[in-house]
Amino acid sequence: MTAPTPIRRALVSVSDKTHLEVLAQILIDAQVEVLSTGGTFKSLEALGVAVVKVSEYTGAPEILGGRVKTLHPKIHGGILALPTPAHEAELRLHGIAPIDLVVVNLYPFRQVVAKPGSSFEDAVENIDIGGPAMVRAAAKNWQRVAVIVDPADYARVGAALREHGGALPESLRRSLMRKAYAHTAAYDAAIAGYLARFDDGGLSLETDALPEQLLVAGAAQGELRYGENPHQPARFYATEQAAGEPAGLHRAVQHQGKALSYNNLLDADAALGLCRDLSRLGPAAAVIKHVSPCGAAIARGDETLADVYVRAREADAESAFGGIVALSGPVDRAVAERLAETFLEVVIAPSFTPEALALLAAKKNLRLLSLEDMFVGTGPESQPALRLRSIAGGLLAQREDAVSVAAAQGRVTTRRAPTAAELRDLELAQIVGKAVRSNAIVLCKDGATVGIGGGQTSRVEAARQATARAGARAQGAVLASDAFFPFRDGVDAAAAAGVTAIVQPGGSVRDEEVVTAADEHGVAMVFTGQRHFRH
């Protein structure tokens, strides 16, 4: 066990000045000599800290527009020196004082590149050089030097200084060291991820391009209640999002209810994604159970969001019990009253009115999540999110699936073309079908799902499941299939139940046979050429 090193001298240079007043008081109380730079120097001085400019200490001015400030032997020698006679003699020879505490957080690279219109030059200028060098140096020499990269750690460092007579115990220095390396690793991953979006000429790559090297960094958002099952520990890690990507669940605000579980987050993500897609067609509601849709609806005419939600719920009221709901608009009292009618696990929406929150407060186990910028970055120019899944030995990565060929843009292959009303329902069925596990069949009617068959090992079985769930509601409904029909039996089953129009990718060796079956039944059929498997 290394004896605690008294904190006599600190270097403070922070981009994020959150809680700087807390740190300033800690340094004053502990009578620590403080070195600093630029804006941090001015802020500390204003807070009453007796602070010395790094340039005065080193005798070297800040140069190159501030690009070189702390890259100096008197700084890095003071940080990296070991408490050995040889190193101490070298420090005396060169007039270098040991630095015992480094408080540094880095240029706001992530925030800069996330701004709309941010240029490549802006991004490069916000790549920190001196900061990571000091953080890594201090972390390397953690047995003598403490390093703080997170303002949330100021208070615990202050408490430890008071408890240990101006020194920090080895366990805390080790903890801070681990956090420092994670901080610089995440920072470098963000830079590498941003640069991967440009070719060797500095031009932006297509939004569906994938990086040659995948660097993933995530900040823990706290422990989840449990994983897929109660005996499995789990955490949620917030990862970097590219500019133009829609906001993720790490940005959501939880207003009430128990802590979220692993399954809650998976379901909420599925509901959020489906609702975002549906919102292109108007006010929308999606109900998810076990990561798969059990009901979805879009507004007809002047329907309210409360009306839309009820039709989504009633698409499969039995399955909606204990489900997760996503809504495309603010939840007001009228919507809240309808939500309160059913036991639900999670509701996510852009916002909740005070009246809605007060009404739903009686549902103490219901989690309410608001995501104010729920639909920011979901337009045609948005960056499709990178989706990752782990397998033994690595990660699979792909861009988010999107229905880019709607039924109205597809090729009519039957004698009868779909009506305008059928086309609208076909587009709804396509979007919902993209969210259903393969093999997937979705029936829609009058702006709502009426039957969903998913996760089946044969397409005709998925069709039978969907029509069985729809029952009499299949009469006059339309159908979307996530992939082609390998045989005509799926079309026969759908037509027998009353389906009047079908959208599918096409591409089977038996397409002609399938189209013939549709014509025999008077069913309109559209080919899109675009498959939407979800495994």
Give your account of this protein's structure.
Helices cover 36% and strands 19% of the residues. The chain is built from 19 helices and 21 strands. Helix 14 packs parallel to helix 15 (354-360), helix 17 (459-470) runs parallel beside helix 18 (489-497) and helix 18 packs parallel to helix 19 (511-521). The radius of gyration is 29 Å and the shape is elongated.
What descriptors fit this protein?
single chain; 535 residues; 6-stranded mixed sheet
Topology of this structure?
Layout: E1 9-14, H1 20-29, E2 33-36, H2 38-46, E3 51-53, H3 54-58, H4 73-80, H5 85-94, E4 101-105, H6 109-114, H7 120-125, H8 130-140, E5 146-148, H9 154-163, H10 170-195, E6 218-223, E7 235-239, E8 253-256, H11 262-278, E9 284-289, E10 292-298, H12 305-314, H13 317-320, E11 323-327, H14 333-339, E12 344-349, H15 354-360, E13 367-370, E14 386-391, E15 394-399, E16 411-412, H16 420-434, E17 441-445, E18 448-453, H17 459-470, E19 478-481, H18 489-497, E20 501-504, H19 511-521, E21 524-527
Parallel strand pairs: 1-2, 1-4, 2-3, 4-5, 11-12, 12-13, 19-20, 20-21
Antiparallel strand pairs: 6-7, 8-13, 9-10, 9-11, 14-15, 16-21, 17-18, 17-19
Structural class: alpha/beta
Q: Name the poorly predicted regions.
A: none
Overall morphology: elongated
Q: Identify the strand order in the major beta sheet.
A: 8-13-12-11-9-10
Oligomer: single chain
Question: What level of helicity do the residues show?
Answer: 25-40%
Radius of gyration from the CA trace? 29 Å
Tell me the fraction of residues in β-strands, as a range: 15-25%
Number of strands: 21
Treating each run of at least 4 consecutive H or I residues as one helix, how many helices?
A: 19
**Biggest beta-sheet profile:** 6 strands, mixed
On the 0 to 100 scale, the average pLDDT is 89
